[in-house]
């Protein structure tokens, strides 16, 4: 998974965020400020502009560019949280020209840990961590598979984790003010995390040669 994959991931993320912009804001309207989709769309639109100006030479450079852009362009909690995630991922992979399965797991783990450090949330708090932690666990369990399979496992687990936030009572963020009234609503950060991790898997599937979804990095 080289710079071309990382760039494709960011472009696919921008597309899927734009597609689901209204739905994400509607999720946020139920238990938050109602601007999650709008904010993320603004940030990823800015990332597209940066990519059009100059293509990052490595995955790590792409992640750090995305981080700085999201932190500077996205309001609310989403900018700092996603920015920290991409920044930590970029630091974890360093200047590597391409990422094997082990480095992908390291990047996802660092991203998740960055969100935890920034947001002080744990699994079960009804936040984006409820998508990221299952994704990291699934990726780690698949780390002897090819990179595309690692990312596919992470995306599938993130999607299931986002759905699993529906019955939870929020314990962090603005949604926590609602108490039991937050039950029955999907966490918007978990939903957007699942979309973005699926974009990573889709980019990997597009980049992987035929037959590269099995074992071996």
From TrEMBL:
Record's Pfam families? Dak2 (PF02734)
GO CC annotations on file:
cytosol
Task: Give all residue intervals belonging to the DhaL domain.
Answer: 4-202
Question: What InterPro entries does this protein's entry cite?
Answer: DhaK_L_YcgS, DhaL_dom, DhaL_dom_sf, Dihydroxyacetone_Kinase
Annotated GO MF terms: glycerone kinase activity
Its keywords, alphabetically, are: Kinase, Transferase
Q: Its GO biological process terms? A: glycerol catabolic process
Is Cytoplasm among this UniProt entry's keywords?
Answer: no
Matching SUPFAM superfamilies, A to Z?
DhaL-like
NCBIfam families, alphabetically?
A: dha_L_ycgS
Q: Report the protein name in the record.
A: Dihydroxyacetone kinase subunit L
